[in-house]
Amino acid sequence: MAKVKITETVLRDAHQSLIATRMPSELMEPILDKMDQVGYHAVECWGGATFDACLRFLKEDPWERLRMLKRHFKNTKLQMLFRGQNILGYNHYADDVVEYFVEKSIANGIDVIRIFDCLNDIRNLETAVKATRKEGGHAQIALCYTLGDAYTLEYWENLARDVENLGADSLCIKDMAGLLLPKEATELVGALKRGTSLPIEMHTHYTSGMASMTYLKAIEAGADIIDTASTPLAMGTSQPSTEVMVAALQGTEYDTGLDLDKLIEISNYFQPYREECIKSGLLSTKVLGVDIKALKYQVPGGMLSNLISQLHQAGKDEKLQEVLEEVPRVRKDFGEPPLVTPSSQIVGTQAVMNVITGERYKMVPKESYKLVAGEFGRTVKPMDEEMLKKVLKGEKQMTDRPADHIPPQLEQFKEECKEWMQQPEDVLSYALFPQVAKDFFQYRDAQKSGIALKNADKENKAYPV
Ligand code: CO
């Protein structure tokens, strides 16, 4: 029996996609013991934007959240999302920082690390994969799914082979924009299976309304694991519903074997939270439906709204159609990268610049320059010669692994944040988000002196007069 396995995303991607990653730990905690009894393949619960959101908006220590999760999930593997050499940040880091982050993630409770790179440049995954295996974790490589001339079935097949050769334990297709159509899922999974015998996991978003059909086709083609979210935080720009997929597969040869009643109890737990989020405006109905534009322009939903707001700020709302036509041209000039953070913002902003200045590559933002100069890694296709000349002005493109140009950084970070250190992990929070972490550390110190007061206050209330 080809049983399909489920990775539950409600504690990470689902709330990242729908409510800007704002679910606090105290909302999660009461339901975790029940979730631990379900028998999920894994629970994705950490990494991605959760780390930044904890420190910046929720005033929570992300490491403390991870330890709390681990205390409850005694039988279930914990999974995190990891942006290759960028870790969870937006820049490339030295290998020593990547290795230490992996070591501490696993030491605090992570079992599966899903590692990806926005250019699918395998070299940017090496250090994280090796470190994960060294620490005894499961290293999953996620390939960013995208469309374009370069992305043939042979491309995916060869990449799957590279993923296996790199030493990954499993492979994931990460369809961040919901572009994978059902028919293409059949062909894609077939190509991956020709390239590797590793387990294959599918990750998509419901943005274009395709996701559950795509999953079904991928499963029929041999996908082993699908990512789904508990119903109250499913669909829209999030994943398909866990309960719906489990019910759809029941009684077939792909039956997940999960108990629908238990899943419904979990769903019931999150339902009032969904309603609360809608009421407060945190969950907008805009992200809950199907976005036909995502289907038509094949750009991630977030990218489209960025373009619209950039044009609005420049007072050039009427240029949207022109910009949408310029996006694929810039992408082609830039070597046809997948459109995912940060390449989606870079390509989008460059397209806006090209249109509003009336001259292509007259204005080149710093991030554009870095991408063109090879500082993010290698693109699938060579870049356009004319554009290179205009942007690099004679400078040479970097062709080796970007992190080879970065000397060790860990000791310097330790030195910089030593006055706030309360645990070894603090240096990693600081390395990724220096200013945000500093603000958090100061808040934490202030809280410590305030805790006594808070408790005293509670005690008073416990004895009403
Ligand atoms: Co996702």
Strand-residue proportion? 5-15%
The CATH superfamily of the largest domain bears the name Aldolase class I
CATH fold descriptor of the largest domain: TIM Barrel
Helix content, binned percent: 40-55%
The total strand number stands at 8
Strand numbers in spatial order across the main sheet? 1-2-3-4-5-6-7-8
CATH class of the largest domain: Alpha Beta
- Rg (C-alpha, Å): 23 Å
Q: Could you say how many structural domains there are in total? A: 3
- Order of helix and strand elements from N to C terminus: EHHEHHEHEHEHEHEHEHHHHHHHHHHH
pLDDT below 50 for ≥5 consecutive residues: which ranges? 455-465
Distance between the termini: 65 Å
Average of per-residue pLDDT values:
93
- Could you say which structural class the secondary elements and strand pairing correspond to? alpha/beta
Bound molecules: cobalt (II) ion
Per DSSP, the total helix count is 20
What CATH architecture of the largest domain would you give?
Alpha-Beta Barrel
| Shape, per Cα inertia axes | globular
Largest sheet report: 8 strands, parallel, barrel
Protein name: Oxaloacetate decarboxylase alpha subunit
Organism: Oribacterium sinus
GO biological process, one term: gluconeogenesis
Domain Pyruvate carboxyltransferase: 4-264
